[in-house]
Q: What sequence folds into this?
């Protein structure tokens, strides 16, 4: 085997390894998203965004809301004017009814996932969030509505804050 053949084989092996790693990450992303989806009462109304779409949603959140720059991140509530603490799903329902936000889409952004890239973002109607509240309130995340400009942040401590613009 001459030098050129060795280089070709070496390059081919490198490509195969990269393809394998990419496939493994895609499977890990899909599996993680499927686990997240299980927190919802109506699984069929939950859509899993691609990694590129998820990254775009994280970017929009960062562009529209003040975030803390320490720890695992989250909303900097000291800089939010419109906010309230949430203790029951009824409070969310009341806010939705008062604002006439029925059936808006809400993006679920996990704050810590262990996934090496952008964690999967799920999107579902606000009514599915309300129905699933008892399961979701134990999962650290930000629920973000781009259309109506509000966020719900669920912290590990169990504290849930709602903010809007």
A:
């Amino acid at each position: 085997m001459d030098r050129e053949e060795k280089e070709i084989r070496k390059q081919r092996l490198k490509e195969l390894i990269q393809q394998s790693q990419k496939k493994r990450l895609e499977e890990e992303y899909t599996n993680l998203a499927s686990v997240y989806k299980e927190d919802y009462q109506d699984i069929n109304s939950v859509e899993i965004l691609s990694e590129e779409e998820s990254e775009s949603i994280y970017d929009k959140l960062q562009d529209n809301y003040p975030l803390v720059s320490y720890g695992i991140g989250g909303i900097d509530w000291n800089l939010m004017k419109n906010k309230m603490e949430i203790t029951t799903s009824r409070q969310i329902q009341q806010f939705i009814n008062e604002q006439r936000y029925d059936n808006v889409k809400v993006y679920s952004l996990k704050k810590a996932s262990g996934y090496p890239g952008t964690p999967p973002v799920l999107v579902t109607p606000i009514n599915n969030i309300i129905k699933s509240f008892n399961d979701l309130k134990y999962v650290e995340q930000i629920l973000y509505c781009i259309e109506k400009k509000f966020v719900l942040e669920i912290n590990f401590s169990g504290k849930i804050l709602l903010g809007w613009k």
Q: What stands out?
A: The radius of gyration is 20 Å.
